[in-house]
Specification:
Layout: H1 11-19, E1 26-30, E2 33-36, H2 38-43, H3 50-54, E3 67-69, H4 84-110, H5 112-119, H6 123-151, H7 153-172, H8 177-205, H9 208-240, H10 242-263, H11 269-284, E4 288-290, H12 305-323, H13 325-354, H14 360-364, H15 368-394, H16 406-423, H17 433-461, H18 465-510, H19 512-527, H20 529-551, H21 562-588, H22 590-612, H23 618-622, E5 628-629, E6 633-636, E7 639-640, H24 641-655
Parallel strand pairs: 3-4
Antiparallel strand pairs: 1-2, 5-6, 6-7
Helix pairs in contact: 4-6, 4-8, 4-9, 4-10, 6-7, 6-8, 6-12, 6-18, 7-8, 7-10, 8-9, 8-18, 9-10, 9-15, 9-17, 12-13, 12-18, 13-17, 13-18, 13-19, 15-17, 16-17, 16-18, 16-19, 17-18, 20-21
């Protein structure tokens, strides 16, 4: 692809193109920065302004060498350069939208008694309404994560959240348990979109050093929502019935959908650049391609290429889950903890309503301990971000991923402490505040472990983070769906003490994981195909950015997609495997290599001697005919092998050499 700079467009083309852009879209220009209007930012993803049109792009503008489109040095459409207030508004809306999904998953439990009475079903069947909602959390990310890479986060969120709201509203009118359960499954599937993509929105806008606080705010939602759900659902269900629980949830999510449509723009850089390139092509009549798509420009017309990429993106989370030890172990740990959280939504009614005689509304208040623990943990994570910033400064601005594990090490201790405490103080003879405080310790440890391990995975896998988080989400959602199903049976058969002790032992078994990763994580990552490749890509991008900063104006960091990163990982992995095999063969066959060297030198000398021999039988030599004689050995030309050996020995004596080649045939 050519690197010739784009010539200035003809005056007529430039004037016509500029006229296609509304003057209202450009509020002001300050040192090369275009400040576009709010609604243009939200509804015009291409960000096409006069300055974008007049910018000089590398390339020729032809089908063979298109102009390569990247963000301008100071680009108002670059999510990394959004104003701080805009970043935080978007973060808050995404966090609340995620909270609403988690709220919907557990608010149902507040009206579960009315569901049992209205449909005349068992408690176990009614609990399936919670489990299938969480199963939707496992199904949805496998679809929404790869689709967001091709179509953007904005359109996927707008579409799925609208459908999520519709299924919540439909649940309010369900006339049988089958309809209610199916609607809740689809509500969970479509509602899982913000659980998967909202974290990506934050990564799109915030740098690694800023991401800690933003991630802390966002991560409050998936844990605070389940704690608030039973409280609101309990009182609302007792007063108005379970249908109003579903109805209020639909109203809540509907209002949030409208707010997000009006205030949340597209933030995924590859999609923004792709739309800008398409718009530039349409306006100017020349060929433009985004920086992300430039390497694959020659294959743009290949049939089924996009579908192949989507299939690859859907398979990649499973590959990462089962081939990367860090992803597998952290996902197992987080899945156990997440399953325990949802187990409590079935266990708390047993402990506080059946054994203590509390009403559904008052029984929901038992989750206040969980909510307080979540808030304390998030507050501490924000405080710990200062420590991380100092450690990053000590490492030249980029801290190793293991620096994220400090909170996880604290949380891994709090988890079994809180669970054992709850297990053996939840009987009616002990004051009710004691097990509630214990649940706060569990919730605090849960959030510390989750936030720490989540950011550790993001920092370790960077360009593969979306697939890693998708695989993590699937596994923990499956655990979250399964644990409530056997909770009732377990508490009936084992009693409230031992049934609560089982997850405590699981948490105790997983407690060493953060400490092991802190100690050996760097070595493990370098042996992992995807983690090592992600580290190499990020190092290369930072090196290029540093070189660009030293040479002139700061250029945006190179945008790498997961497909491009995986292709590089495959190549580098093959290189490493080949080098490893060669190294092992070298160690095993060092003596054989010496013999091979002697053979190579002998054959080289022999070829030189043969070149000096008169060729009296060209036909035989060209055809490879080598007549043999029992007495004289193999004949080559007019000389036998014995004669050649004699000549070589004579020359070696003349040169003072003594190579014993008698064993070489």
């Amino acid at each position: 692809m050519g690197t010739t700079t784009q010539p200035p467009p003809p005056a007529s083309t430039s004037t016509t193109a500029a006229a296609a852009i509304s003057e209202k879209d450009v509020e002001s220009q300050n040192r090369g920065t275009n400040r576009v209007s709010h609604f243009s930012l939200v509804f015009n993803p291409s960000g096409l302004t006069p300055e974008v049109l007049e910018h000089v792009y590398p390339g020729h503008g032809t089908a063979e060498s298109p102009y390569v489109v990247d963000f301008l040095p100071r680009d108002a459409r670059n999510p990394m350069q959004f104003a701080p207030w805009r970043k935080w508004v978007i973060t808050a809306l995404q966090a609340i939208a995620t909270l609403a999904v988690a709220f919907a998953s557990t608010a149902y439990s507040g009206g579960i008694i009315q569901v049992i009475r209205d449909f005349h079903i068992s408690t176990e069947l009614a609990i399936v309404g919670i489990s299938l909602f969480v199963v939707g959390f496992a199904v949805g990310p496998l679809l929404w994560a790869p689709l967001s890479e091709f179509y953007g986060r904005q359109i996927i969120f707008f579409t799925t959240y609208a459908v999520f709201t519709a299924f919540n509203a439909g649940g309010a009118g369900a006339q049988n348990i089958q309809t209610l359960i199916v609607l809740r499954f689809f509500a969970g599937s479509f509602g899982s979109s913000p659980l998967t993509n909202s974290g990506g929105v934050i990564a799109d806008m915030f740098s690694a050093n800023e991401r800690g606080m933003a991630s802390g705010v966002f991560a409050t939602a998936p844990f605070l929502g389940p704690a608030i759900g039973p409280i609101v659902g309990g009182f609302l269900g007792a007063a108005e019935g379970w249908r109003w629980v579903q109805g209020v949830t639909a109203i809540f999510t509907g209002v949030l959908w409208i707010a997000c449509v009006l205030f949340v723009p597209e933030t995924y850089a590859p999609v923004l650049l792709r739309k800008r390139a398409a718009e530039l092509t349409k306006v100017t009549g020349k060929f433009y391609v985004s920086k992300v798509d430039a390497p694959n420009w020659e294959h743009r017309g290949r049939k089924g290429e996009k579908m192949k990429q989507i299939k690859t993106a859907m398979v990649r989370p499973w590959v990462l889950l089962f081939s990367e030890p860090i992803v597998f172990l952290t996902s197992i740990y987080m899945a156990i903890v997440y399953g325990t959280l949802y187990m409590l939504f079935a266990a708390f009614p047993i402990v506080f309503q059946q054994y203590r005689g509390w009403s559904a509304g008052v029984g929901g208040l038992a989750f206040i301990g969980v909510a307080v623990g979540v808030l304390i943990a998030v507050s501490y994570c924000m405080y710990d971000n200062k420590r991380y910033t100092r450690e990053a400064a000590a490492h030249g601005g980029v801290a190793p991923p293991e620096a994220r594990l400090f909170c996880a090490m604290i949380g891994s201790v709090l988890l079994p402490v809180g669970l054992f405490w709850f297990a053996w103080t939840n009987s009616p003879s002990v004051h009710w505040i004691v097990p509630i405080i214990a649940s706060g310790f569990f919730a605090c440890g849960l959030v510390l472990v989750f936030l720490s391990l989540m950011t550790y995975l993001i920092d370790s896998y960077t360009v593969f983070a979306a697939s890693v988080l998708a695989s993590n989400s699937v596994l923990r959602s499956l655990f979250g769906a399964a644990f409530p199903l056997f909770t009732t049976y377990m508490y009936k058969d084992l009693g409230i003490h031992w049934a609560s002790t089982i997850p405590a032992f699981l948490a105790l078994a997983c407690m060493p994981f953060p400490f092991l990763f802190y100690r050996y994580g760097a070595a493990i990552r370098m042996r992992c195909k995807y983690a090592s490749e992600a580290a190499a890509i990020i190092a290369r991008m930072r090196g290029a950015a540093a070189a660009g900063a030293g040479a002139g104006p700061t250029e945006p960091l190179e945008v790498i997609t997961e497909d491009q990163a995986e292709a590089e990982a495959e190549i580098n992995n093959e290189i490493r495997k080949t080098a490893s095999r060669a190294s092992r063969a070298s160690r095993r066959n060092s003596h054989a290599r010496k013999d091979s060297g002697l053979l190579s030198r002998f054959m080289s000398n022999r070829s030189q001697r043969l070149d000096e021999v008169p060729r009296e039988q060209p036909e035989q030599q060209l055809q490879g005919v080598r007549p043999s004689s029992d007495d004289e050995g193999t004949i080559v030309g007019n000389h036998t092998d014995d004669e050649l050996r004699e000549k070589e020995k004579e020359k070696e004596k003349e040169c003072g050499g003594s190579h014993d080649n008698t064993n070489v045939v």
